[in-house]
Amino acid sequence: MHFIFEVKMRPGYPPERYAEAWLRASEIIQQAPGALGTRLHRKIGHPDTLLAIATWESKAARDAMESRPLDTVQRIIAEQSEFVEITVLGEYTAPEWQVIPPD
Prior knowledge:
Elements lengths: L1 E8 L5 H15 L5 E9 L2 E11 L2 H9 L3 H10 L3 E9 L11
Antiparallel strand pairs: 1-3, 1-4, 2-3
Helix pairs in contact: 1-3
InterPro entries: ABM_dom, Dimeric_a/b-barrel
Organism: Mangrovimicrobium sediminis
Pfam families: ABM
């Protein structure tokens, strides 16, 4: 499953600063059972808007991680809260339909 959220920088806050914090928190979160990686994308034409996509074995695995919040991760998130606006877009299943170019 994929957990997807959007991050908008408040005026004057560089996305690179948020990305540094995201990396620190993500390195910890990715140690949880069922974590399969995470990516941070910059929106074309809107450099102060980022999209995070975290991949998990299952919703249950992500829920288990969320049920045991780590103080370090919570602190990193709290430190960023005054500089960014985070909107959770949702939890999505793995693709049911896809088209892949031929080799």
